[in-house]
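G., before I forget:
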Amino acid sequence: MTFDELDELSERAPEDADAAIAELVSTSNVDELAQFARARADRVALRAIEGLAEVGGSEAATALVELLEETSTPRVIWGTEQEREHERRQSHLVQSLARVRGVPAPRGRSREEIAEFIEECRRA
Amino acid sequence: MLAEALPAGQTASPCDISKTSETLDQFAHDSSTLTAAHRTAVDRIADCLLALRADPRPIRTVDIVGFTDPTGAPDHNQRLGQRRAESVRNRLVSALNGKSAGSAASFTFRVGSLGATRQIAGGNPANRRVEVSVEIAVSDIVVHASDTDTHEIASNLGAPGLEHFCCVKNTGDIVLQALISPNIPGALGARLTWGATGTAITSPAVGTDGRTAKLSSAAAGKFPIQVNWDGAVARRAVVWVIWSTFTVTCTRPPRTVPFPGMVGIRAGIDHTFRVDPQQITTDADRPALDGPPTAAVPGAALRHLASGSLLGGGAAKKWDTSRQVRVRVLNPRLYPVPQLPPIDPLGHLWNGQPTANTIPENYPANAALGNDDSNTCDETNNPYENCGLLTSIDNPTIPMRNATGADGDTFELRIHFREFLRVNLGTTWYRASDSSLWRFHVRFRRAGGVWTDNGSSLAQDNAGF
């Protein structure tokens, strides 16, 4: 399934996307979970992020680090709904990565704290 | 044998709803033999019963009661009345089966006698009679088919609750229809009347049919209504005309926000909407308008101009604060898209770029379509747990890449908004407030290698587009 197809599915049939994520978790398919974690549909992306944490291991950790780094580059934060969606995904990524790496999550979410956290996770 | 007291005003002739019964009088003294006039009347009654067989509200039970004049002993009169009623019943069965084989079996005939009780005017011949009637009820109130903007919404109490009819203010007359069961034809005369509290209700609303009534939707409110049958309340319901008022609770003037390699300009505004009438969220028996919507929002398949997200995510409950946007892009130096602020690949804010002056997004024609509303993160939409209030906040932020352009360059976005409340009734979304107009004009000038605020402004109007 291509990324565009995944994106379509996640927006048109989020329940089917949920089931697909569960299957990916059970087979530890980190690559496709990382794709889902970039979906526009917030619900699907958050579930995929949690799925990566459930899979665990260094491959999932690497994927989570990459996803977290992507959140540091803002798109147009058009309004509060996009800002909060961004914050929620970033928070999910931080919590999932902390769980996988066994390190504490940073208290704040400033760019500096996120960058420091990413470095700590790479060293862990 | 029938009970002594028939329910007063709760019966009708099988052929004419304006009459309480069909009367066959002028029986010969001490006789139960049907006259020619009786046989004709019975045949007509049979036609009326058969005419409604296919109706959703057919006649199923027919009461046939015999009476006598006051001469003779009570016991004798009781038996005579019974024989008269049975004669009519037997003729009616025969007529039905003659017109449609086996059709009499689809009816229940309750045959009885009241002897010489219930004497009526007209002397003894008039009292030597049989009355044929059916029990009648106002079985339901529904929205008339001509009214597509009023919706019957189930009570939060389920079956024990009242009927609730909801519409948004200024959507035309609310037209209701009383369903009579069985659905006997004929003009109602004064048998059925309508009443309302807090507003006028007029009947008939459609042609001359007194089963229909209308109320105005010009004013928001809760309007209890009732249908009366023969002067007694037969059914109650509530009509709700919905609207809301808004308040701007906070504004945040433009300020710069740093990003890596970019400078952003941000402003903000907060709104509170109050649902009217408030009882629609507080009454113990109210329309069940809490919970998720029963229809996709208008424009659900469209995408947000910047985030690329589907507008279908813009509502998670039947009550929803929403926003419309229009944008003008002033790009005098004709920066190509890669040099403009990054947006989602499925966004269309930069459609037509590079161009000096373009409008990539205009206000939608559908008043309930929120083209700047693709999720509910910036809203609280539960008036049931927030004293009838809903809120929205917005902090639009526009960044410019410092690598774009040269010192002295300018770039501007004129972003105009209409903030509003919408409500989902049945299969439709309706705007349920006036628009709160506001605008954010974002003006950049590049100086010293970075972009600076060149007089951005926030105002509560839509001027200067």
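Chain A has seven helices and no strands. Chain A touches chain B at residues 11, 40-42, 72-85, 88, 111 (CB under 8 Å).

More on Monday.
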